[in-house]
Design the sequence.
DNA sequence: TATATTTGCTTAATCGATTAAGCAAATATA
DNA sequence: TATATTTGCTTAATCGATTAAGCAAATATA
């Protein structure tokens, strides 16, 4: 590999017999540089295939034009779609993104933050891992002085911007829909209460039951990590109850899929015997049999808004970080599993 | 936001009344620095919450300890798993990864490469977008002198390291399996021939048919982008044929899922009427009804090997980039759709 | 005791790009 | 014509971390 040295401003300067400072200004179209010089500089830059050294300019300017993103996993359509739209907005503003995965692990999330700070990102946009309870690593980001924006999985205690959907209301919409279909014993396979969004979904579920004058039965409310396997397990548990539910609201599509598998395996008719509702509107919800009713989380919007919030902070550095929530209305997509 | 200035080596030096050079050496446990000074430096570093400025050291050392990764999309389990294992290996060698998505777009892939080179990554590990035919942007990486490693979707013409599975053999394994089950008219919903792996799958399919003395029927071979929607479309087309196939080998699980939906909708019994085989062993293949026979691509191994190949190039910079293929044997996971 | 070696630091330069300050030549204004 | 302003560049310092070169003091060796 002919380790060709990259051309530098100095190389261009040498060719033209001017100072590197003049070259730098010419490249930035400084008004104090003559058109003749600008043209010459740009011509030579092209000839030498000059690529500015990002490290040098970032060091000098104190900003890297990189935004760090932390997601629990990239392999869900939700996060993938959020990332895609976030990137589009940031690219337009000449920022690039560095994606890291926490794999739902607290330890990994801490490492991710260290990596991103180490890389001198200009800001961090994150969705918290399932395991995360201690927030000190996020405090570190804040005290570093760079904007921190949370989406989907956030925490009020951090007092930073947050973009997400209305989880509490979503639960209401789901329960109302199931009640309308005549369900009386609605179970909830939820996430862990320590995660704010899952806590809100549980609260919304409980309040919606109360509103509809249905009894709250603790045996019908379970918490889990909401993997497909968890969905299977909890569904099996629910079916073992003396008094089975006639509907199950699962706080994640993956877990809902697990639940559906168990129901299918045990020849329990969905929606006739038990109605099923998921959360997230992952593409597979419309592909399985029966298709699963779910909540659309507006991933595109979330990505866009999170990116724009970051840009707002960059544009107005005097803006203090405070709890500023952008809450989107979720949308219930009704499919065969609850029809 | 109290834009606290980060502590620098100079700050530590000032506290201890020694030179920044001594501090730098102390932090790196240089043998020419006394234990007393080292301890003092580390104590003050901790007190001031010193974080080395990555940009400065990267600029000085000429390496960023960042590896750029390009994947078509992160939302498949295959790529997500490759990334996870790649990251684990690289992190251990104190490299961090920057993940970018091409969204299967050639244009986006070019941009990704520009971004990564701009960020001064020490190497690029990539899987090519569906659209990519022109390879000049990859040549740019090569001429930049940093290692380029391809995985899954690669090209011989680039003459760089490649890690992937044996696509040609995989097709043979699939065809053999279907023939064993008594199939005589095996269709293939493949990817575009311009992508090497898909071309190899098609070639393998054709050769395996020949080997089993089955006729090659061009109406049974179709090329597509292999999305779920493509799978639906092509399956519908195949069913409209006068002489229907008795088995379909789809070169991607997503497209296979689409095909299965159509078969289910039209009440065609799988596997009795038509046998179905996918490719990739995505988790959902075991979840749908009937479960889909598929090829396991050893994503973990691919991630690990790609990372190790990169590290090998870093360890031996004199190593020339040549076409060096690491080909893994794929594994057929037989499920209900072909049983 | 005289010289050689080792220890423990400092000095100064460097990685590239950028910018404030400054200077000479060209041009504009009085 | 004399002064003021503008133009078009250069000089030098800077962003932090690192390292080759060097120097004085401490220690080892002859």
Sequence:
């Amino acid at each position: 590999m002919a380790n060709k040295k990259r051309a530098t401003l100095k190389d261009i300067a040498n060719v033209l017999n001017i100072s590197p400072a003049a070259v730098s200004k010419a490249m930035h179209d400084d008004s104090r540089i003559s058109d003749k010089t600008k043209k010459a500089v740009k011509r030579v830059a092209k000839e030498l295939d000059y690529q500015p050294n990002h490290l040098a300019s970032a060091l000098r300017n104190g900003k890297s034009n990189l935004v760090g993103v932390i997601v629990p996993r990239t392999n869900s359509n939700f996060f993938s779609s959020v990332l895609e739209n976030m990137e589009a907005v940031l690219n337009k503003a000449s920022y690039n993104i560095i994606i890291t995965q926490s794999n739902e692990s607290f330890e990994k999330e801490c490492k991710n933050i260290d990596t991103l700070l180490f890389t001198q990102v200009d800001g961090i946009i994150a969705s918290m891992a399932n395991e995360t309870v201690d927030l000190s690593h996020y405090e570190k980001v804040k005290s570093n002085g760079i904007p921190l924006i949370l989406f989907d999985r956030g925490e009020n205690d951090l007092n930073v911007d947050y973009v997400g959907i209305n989880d509490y209301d979503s639960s209401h919409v789901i329960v109302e829909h199931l009640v309308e279909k005549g369900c009386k014993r609605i179970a909830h396979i939820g996430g862990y209460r320590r995660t704010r969004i899952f806590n809100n979904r549980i609260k919304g579920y409980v309040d919606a039951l109360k509103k509809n004058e249905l009894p709250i039965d603790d045996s019908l409310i379970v918490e889990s990590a909401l993997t497909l396997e968890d969905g299977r397990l909890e569904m099996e548990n629910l079916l073992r109850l003396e008094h089975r539910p006639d509907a199950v609201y699962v706080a994640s599509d993956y877990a809902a899929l697990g639940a559906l598998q168990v129901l299918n395996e045990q020849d329990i008719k969905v929606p006739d015997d038990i109605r099923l509702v998921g959360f997230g509107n992952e593409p597979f919800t419309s592909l399985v049999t029966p298709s699963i009713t779910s909540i659309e989380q507006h991933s595109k919007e979330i990505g866009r808004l999170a990116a724009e919030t970051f840009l707002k902070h960059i544009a107005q550095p005097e803006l203090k970080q405070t709890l500023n929530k952008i809450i989107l209305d979720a949308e219930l997509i009704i499919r065969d599993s609850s029809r």
Summary: The longest helix of chain B spans residues 299-315. Chain B has a mean pLDDT of 93. Residues 9-52 of chain B form one domain. The first strand of chain B starts at residue 66 and ends at 71.
